[in-house]
Amino acid sequence: MGFMYFVFLSGVKMDFSVVAKTKKKQIAISILGVLVPIIMVTIVGLIFRKSMDKELAKLSTIGGIAATLALPLFPVLYPILKELNLLSSDIGRLALSISVISDVVGITFMVVFEATKQGEGKPIAMLWYVISLVFILAFTMLVVRKAMQKIIDHTPDGQSVDQAYVVGILLLVMVMGFFTDMFGVAIANGPFWLGLAIPDGPPLGSTLVERSETLVMEILMPFSFALIGLFIDVQVPFRDSAVLSLVMSLKGQVELLLFTHWMDKKMVQIPGFTMLVLLITIVTALATPLISILYDPTRPYMVHKRRTIQNTPTTDAELRIVLVIYDEDSTAPLINLLEVSNPTTSTPFSIFAIRLIELVGRASPVFIDHQKQEDEAELKYAVSQNIHNALKLYQESKGDYVKLFNFTAIAPNKTMYQDICELALLKRATLMILPFHKECLDTLGGTLTEMVTSGIRSVNANVIAHSPCSVAVLVDKGHLRHPLMAFRNSELHFVVLFLGGADAREALCFADRMVGNPNVSLTVIRFLSYNFEGDNEMEKKMDDGVVTWFWVKNERNDRVSYREVVVKNGAETVGAIRALNYGEDNTCDVWIMGRKQGINPVLLEGLSNWSENEELGIIGDFVSSDDFGGTASVLVVQQQMLRGQGTGKAGMEKLTAGLNLC
User: 204-215 vs 145-153: helix axis angle to the nearest 10?
Assistant: First the structure.
């Protein structure tokens, strides 16, 4: 029963539309990846045929075993790739596409094998098998699929399918298994075809997966594996291409079900069954860790070329920005941040807006370029209308200053960062802007209430760790949430907290662009250690160079002010920032600062254990906290880390520690 529901859910998640989009390369790999192993296994079987059991030596049995062992099946590959966080990687996408095509070939082989097996005793049995098969397929695709479509049509937009329908469909799985077994068709075929007849994604496919996957995978499947174990009698106590080969070699639940079917048909005996189960167990157990060791999906994102605001000319150069949108609430603050960043004729913006949606109810991740949208079936995953309209209005209001490109990525939270980093890499982005995972909402009485967006913190942490360009994280507390036209007429005061280092230099260069907006006034506060204690000479020289460039450029600008603060430790740093926040002339709308690279440790002495949100850095976390007070938003900037300069494994573990709580 567990296997029946497993293949049913695999059918629900499977997206056969990828077959129509398959490139020649993938088709060639699929065909060769199936035919070559079939031929090799068949040759080996024929060579040793004389030493085999009578049933095992039959041509139909040899053909069936050869076909089964040669197929990289989708239901097996998908959960393993998901576990390894490779669904959105190049290897993962290629493997899933190949497996879907291979499944089409495999289903054909299995039908031929079953028909041949049925006709070994009485030729008339083959005819009845074909008639039964055609009847079940016709019933599933004509009657059942229409019924499923009616269920979808009767479900209001945005709502889940009624529980009664879900229960009915899950009972139908048992019925389909019963009839396919009664008609002589393999018992798993009925549930699998039923799953294929159900449209993937929302509302029906996603609801079925959400409400039954945990029950199937955590309760039914362990019992099914235990049942397989009862039949076992143990008597005797290279890079991307290599990884793809290992992925295509993975075997699992479907093969175990087929081996059980062979025992039922007396094609193999207990010793042979034991050998087959041990074979796929050992292969999968060895291949899975090797895949993790040999393939790092984040490797392409770290580049050698500088992609930073600091290295982008302030005139006659385009600023290419990836705008990450998680939900509708984060759209207005992001657009207003773009507005104050001051796109002009000499410094136009190319905005690559990517809307992220958690993958539910289907197996294959989807990445949609809305400039090339041709598949009508994927329109249900388009950017929500309000978000699309808001971005479009902003682009139209800026004319030639802004070019907008919309994308949508549907992926598991664990691998969303791969789509973001891949887009930034391909589009040669200079900056990525991410909304923070917490939003501050205005409530009665003038207080602010935090709302946590589930799953987003881990995405942001992974993007920060692997980004191929600079990253800015926006913590919006309300000032940036006003309508665009009202926001344009507002006078804004930004404060840069310059603590030194690469991130601080990048933040100052970003703020320098904002000063070009006539509605923005800017105060730069540079923190220095007493007697220059703890300074890194190289970092100090680079900081001096950027600060001098900035001040020479803006010295005569009445909207720009600069001052320095000397401190002895982290407590004095925090005290100075608090004084700025509670001072009489405090009108700060946005605090801007670097995240952490290159900061003199003396400036943060005693503060390392205080930080809760590692992705914001110590000072960014402090300024955005409730304890700090105020309603000013916070912008934390990290300059691009070049290859070999990344966080490393230990740093990544620290950055993502505890992210499962959000």
Answer: 110
Q: Is the pLDDT of residue 113 over 60?
A: yes
Q: What is the mean pLDDT of the chain?
A: 80
Length of the chain (residues): 662
Q: Could you tell me if 639 and 503 are in contact, meaning their C-beta atoms sit under 8 angstroms apart? A: yes
pLDDT band at 648 (very low <50, low <70, confident <90, very high): very low
Dist CA 291 CA 630 (whole Å) = 49
Could you read off the pLDDT of 561-606 as tens digits, one per residue? 999 999 999 899 999 998 887 766 667 889 999 998 888 899 998 8
Residues 6+ apart with CB under 8 A from 314: 347, 512, 513
Contact yes or no for 191/5 (Cβ under 8 A):
yes
Q: Which residue shows structure tokens 């880390």?
A: 641
pLDDT of residue 562: 93
What's the rounded Cα separation, in Å, for the pair 584 and 573? 19
Whole-number Å distance between alpha carbons of 16 and 18: 5
Using CA atoms, how far apart are residues 60 and 54, in angstroms rounded to an integer?
Answer: 12
Asked if 512 and 314 touch (Cβ cutoff 8 Å), the reply is yes
Q: Which residue has the tokens 């197996």?
A: 363
Q: Which two tokens stand for residue 230?
A: 């009862």
Q: Which tokens is 22 given?
A: 């398959």
Q: Is the pLDDT of residue 499 over 90?
A: yes
Token reading at 658: 């505890």
Residue type, 160: S
